[in-house]
Amino acid sequence: HQDLQKLKHKTLKHFWGHDSFRDPQEQVIDSVLNQKDTLILLPTGAGKSLCYQLPALLREGVCLVISPLLALMKDQVNQLKFRGIEAEYLSSELDDFDAEVIYNRCKDGLTKLLYVSPERLTNIQFLRNIEEIQLSFIAVDEAHCISEWGQDFRPSYQNIKDFRKNHPGISCLALTATATPKVLDEIKNKLELKNPTIFQKSFKRENIKIFCEEISDKYQRIFNILKFAKESGIIYVRTRKEAEQLTEYLHKKQIQHVDFFHAGLTTSEKNSRQNLWNNSSNHILISTNAFGMGIDKDNVRFVIHFSPSPSIENYYQEIGRAGRDGNASYAFLLWDQQEISNFDQILKNQIPNKTEFEKIITYLYSIFQVAEFEMPEKVFQLNTAGIQNFTKLSAAKIKNVLNFLHTQEIIYYNSNKSLSSLELK
Ligand code: ADP
Ligand code: MG
Known about the structure:
Blueprint: H1 2-16, H2 25-33, E1 38-41, H3 49-58, E2 62-66, H4 70-82, E3 87-89, H5 96-107, E4 113-116, H6 124-130, E5 135-140, H7 159-166, E6 172-176, H8 181-190, E7 197-200, E8 208-214, H9 218-228, E9 232-236, H10 240-252, E10 258-261, H11 267-278, E11 284-287, E12 300-305, H12 312-319, E13 329-335, H13 337-341, H14 343-346, H15 356-371, E14 378-383, E15 386-389, H16 390-393, H17 396-401, E16 409-413
Parallel strand pairs: 1-6, 1-7, 2-4, 2-5, 3-4, 5-6, 8-13, 8-16, 9-11, 9-12, 10-11, 12-13, 14-16
Antiparallel strand pairs: 14-15
């Protein structure tokens, strides 16, 4: 055991020059070395490649890597060769002779990693040759390509299932940066991963606290928040008119450090407003979703949504503009009765008899399913009776629903009375 420990580190240092593994590379490698089906969900740049490349060197036989793009394969193989690792890829660009050479090197146990496209798994010549090659394990890179839900759906990824059936006993490592539950389930099912060990590193933004509030007088509520807010923020509204009206209201209430921003402004107006905001420590922009792309401001302390974002991806992106400096930050999602009753229509899968709170949570769930958030530790329902712990109130089903919330707590606030303890300080 200790020898293996040493061997892993030595290999890492020798071929890659790294001194240590990143979390959770080493555990993934152990799982692969133990011939377990394994699934890893890690953000781009986390270092997934090493999780199959290193065990490929330590295991006997050839690791078959399934990759969606020739450019990716070439890049990886070049890097591996540069490090002195025997790796090859098969592509239709190669003539029969080149392919023959590669197959022979695999049969002789010289090649440690063989990259192929999913299409190749049904190629007769490939299948004939593979019978004479000892495989160590299968690595499926960009495994979300197997999911019909994603944008990268690649039907030929479904070939992997049959290939696995015909090569029983060979374990599989699936790798992806997409972690929505639907996609995850599809990967598990379609690759027929048996009791897989799953490694997942969260994409969470722990410093953003989400307040989800049902409120009839949103203007008043925003005014209350801004009285406490001493730092920069963004307020997202749906229309240009809303942006202008809210700005006017706040100016009348003596809150002067706010401006509106929308696509109707001239380029120079937009630039000057954005610059002012960028360089200020307390300026607030009230904006349609015209504002956002390329924002790189560290100290955005809060993002208020005057209405729920029409797109889930937008919502995640928009609140993600808060707290880039890592300091505690706030997202306020404001609702009114009308928006809540429209809600069932927004959701494709209607679930009848939901309380309004559950509807909102379901909406948030769909937001965070996309956003890959984690379950918050606490979800509070606030009403005139006080604070109730939502996780205690609701069925386990709803708890699952919260599985992907990326915040420590969600506060649902359904009274128009302000609670001073919850005001932004
Ligand atoms: P992913 O496939 O998860 O997007 P890659 O496998 O392409 O990520 O790796 C991203 C970068 O991280 C590469 O430049 C790689 O060299 C580097 N890297 C991976 N593992 C380590 C490590 N243990 N120590 C230092 N750098 C690492
Ligand atoms: Mg990768």
